[in-house]
Design a protein that fits this description.
It is built from two helices and seven strands. The protein has 155 residues and is of the alpha+beta class.
């Protein structure tokens, strides 16, 4: 079945340490997720910064307010450069999300690369066309504004 990829880049006027500390802490995920998603971090195995093997559990309502369990594992971490979370239990057949940060003049550039496969074969492909891709675009649009509110707009 088809795989899809979403790539988003954002320049942020902050130091690499500030951004890394923020994005690598699971407790900050709720701040950059739309309220209507009902996103809650229910637990993580480390209670601190991300590390390879960390398991994070969430409740999320991606559709019609229906609460779902979502479990991700942090599979790769390179301090102050990138980390990868992969879904272990959740709404997708496959979810791989790479979070990269790199210094640029005036701040950092953050790149999110999400590779995913919706469930249910051809029905999932249709759902992706009808609403999943749009919903992911909206989530990352919200995240852009939320990060601007926290760290300021890049000039």
């Amino acid at each position: 079945m088809a795989y899809y990829q979403l790539i988003k880049k954002q320049n942020i006027p902050a130091s690499i340490d500030e951004i890394w500390d923020f994005i690598s802490s699971p407790s900050n995920l709720k701040e950059i997720t739309p309220k209507h998603m009902g996103f809650e971090v229910k637990g993580n195995t480390g209670k601190g910064q991300m590390y390879p093997g960390m398991i994070i559990t969430y409740k999320v309502s991606p559709l019609l307010g229906i609460k779902l369990d979502w479990v991700t594992e942090i599979t790769h971490v390179k301090d102050k450069e990138y980390f990868v979370d992969e879904q272990r239990i959740g709404p997708y057949t496959m979810w791989h999300h790479e979070h990269k940060i790199e210094p640029i003049v005036g701040g950092i550039m953050m790149t999110d690369i999400v590779t995913y496969q919706p469930p249910m074969g051809i029905l999932g492909a249709i759902a992706n066309t009808l609403f999943i891709k749009k919903q992911l675009e909206e989530i990352f649009g919200y995240r852009t504004v939320a990060l601007e509110n926290i760290f300021g707009k890049f000039r």
